[in-house]
C-alpha cells in the first residue's frame, strides 16, 4: 500500500511549524526521523493532509548544559546518544539505552522526541525518561508548558500533546556520582522492541529510589520509595509485589517480567 497524498511543510522554526500544524487541525502531523511514521503512512494507519517536517529546525537539535541537568532538543537521534556525541547526565544509562534500540539504520534517523511522541509502550525512551525524572517541554500556538515525562504518555500511542503542539526538548537531571541504575529489556533478538522491561534507579544523594515497569499494554508504571529495590530481593516477594501492583499480563509475560525484575534487583545490589 502507499501513503495518501499529503502536503509537506518544511519547518524552519518552531513557531511557524506549530502555526502550520494548528491550521491543519488534526489533519496535520509532525515528522521527525520517520522511522515509525513512515510505516504508519504506508499502511495508511496515519492519513495526514499536512506533514510538518522537523528536520530543518536547528533549535530542535540544541543541547544546553546546566549545573543540575542537561536539555536535549527533541530531534537528537538515538545514534548521537549511542556514539557519545551528546553529553551524558546519566552515568552511562542513556548511551546504553540508545545502543539497544532497533538497528543502526533506525538509530541514525530515529529521534528521542519522535519515540516519546509515538508512545509505543515497548519503546525504550518511553520507560527510561520517567525513570530518570526527565521533564518535557511542549510548545504550541497557545504557548509553552512543561510536564514530567511520567505524565506525558496516557495510553498506548496516546500522549498529552494537544492540537498543533510539538515536543521540543527533554530535560534530564544529572545523576550524582553515587547513583546506580539498571536497565533490563527482554527480547528475542538484540534491538527488538521489548517483550518485558524493567529499569531501576537509586540515587541517595538526590533522595531518589525508583523502579519502572514497561512494555505493558499502556503507559509504563513508575514506583518510588526508599528501600523498594532491596525489598524485592526475594523471589516470592517479587511475584507478590507484581500482583499487588496490579500488573496484569499473561503468564508468559509475567515470567519474563519477574526475571527482568530479578536481574534489575541483582544489578542494583552489585556495585558498578
Ligand atoms: C525495525 C524497527 C525497530 C525498532 N525497534 C525499536 C526498539 O527496539 N526500541 C524503541 O524504542 N524503538 C524502536 N523503534 C522505533 C524507533 O525508535 C523510532 O525512531 C521512534 O519510535 C520514532 O522516532 P522518529 O524520530 O522516527 O519519529 P517519527 O516516526 O517521525 O514520528 C513518530 C510519531 O511522533 C510524532 N512526532 C515526532 N516528533 C515529534 C515532536 N517533536 N513533537 C510532536 N510529535 C512528534 C509524529 O507525528 C509521529 O506521530 C523501531 C523502529 C523500527 C522501524
User: What sequence of helices (H) and strands (E) makes up the elements?
Assistant: EHEHEEEHHHHHEEHEEEEEEEHH
CATH topology of the largest domain: Uridine Diphospho-n-acetylenolpyruvylglucosamine Reductase, domain 3
Structural class: alpha+beta
How much strand content do the residues show? 25-35%
The Rg value, from CA coordinates, equals: 19 Å
* Tally of separate domains: 3
Low-confidence stretches: none
Distance from first to last alpha carbon: 49 Å
Please list the strands of the largest sheet in the order they lie side by side: 4-5-10-6-7
Shape: globular
Please tell me the overall pLDDT: 95
Oligomeric status of the shown chains?
A: single chain
Bound molecules: flavin-adenine dinucleotide
TL;DR of this structure?
Keywords: FAD, Flavoprotein, Oxidoreductase. This protein is an alpha+beta fold.
Amino acid at each position: 500500500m502507499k501513503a495518501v497524498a499529503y502536503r509537506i511543510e518544511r519547518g524552519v522554526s518552531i513557531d511557524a511549524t506549530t502555526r502550520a500544524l494548528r491550521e491543519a487541525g488534526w489533519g496535520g502531523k509532525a515528522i521527525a526521523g520517520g522511522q515509525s511514521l513512515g510505516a504508519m503512512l504506508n499502511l495508511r494507519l496515519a492519513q495526514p493532509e499536512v506533514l510538518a517536517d522537523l528536520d530543518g529546525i536547528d533549535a530542535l537539535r540544541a543541547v544546553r548544559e546546566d549545573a543540575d541537568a542537561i536539555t536535549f532538543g527533541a530531534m537528537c537521534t538515538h545514534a548521537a546518544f549511542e556514539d557519545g556525541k551528546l553529553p551524558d547526565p546519566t552515568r552511562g544509562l542513556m548511551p546504553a539505552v540508545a545502543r539497544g534500540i532497533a538497528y543502526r539504520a533506525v538509530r541514525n534517523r530515529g529521534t528521542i522526541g519522535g519515540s516519546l511522541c509515538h508512545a509505543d509502550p515497548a519503546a525504550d525512551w518511553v520507560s527510561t525518561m520517567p525513570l530518570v525524572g526527565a521533564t518535557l517541554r511542549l510548545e504550541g500556538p497557545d504557548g509553552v508548558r512543561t510536564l514530567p515525562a511520567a505524565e506525558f504518555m496516557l495510553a498506548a500511542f496516546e500522549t498529552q500533546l494537544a492540537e498543533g503542539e510539538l515536543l521540543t526538548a527533554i530535560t534530564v537531571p544529572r545523576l550524582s556520582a553515587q547513583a546506580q541504575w539498571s536497565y533490563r529489556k527482554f527480547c528475542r533478538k538484540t534491538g527488538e522492541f521489548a517483550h518485558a522491561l524493567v529499569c531501576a534507579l537509586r540515587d541517595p544523594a538526590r533522595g531518589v529510589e525508583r523502579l519502572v515497569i514497561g512494555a505493558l499494554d499502556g503507559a509504563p508504571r513508575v514506583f518510588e520509595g526508599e528501600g523498594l529495590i532491596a525489598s524485592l530481593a526475594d523471589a516470592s516477594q517479587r511475584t507478590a509485589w507484581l500482583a499487588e501492583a496490579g500488573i496484569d499480563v499473561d503468564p508468559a509475560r509475567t515470567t519474563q517480567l519477574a526475571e527482568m525484575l530479578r536481574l534489575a534487583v541483582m544489578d542494583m545490589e552489585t556495585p558498578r
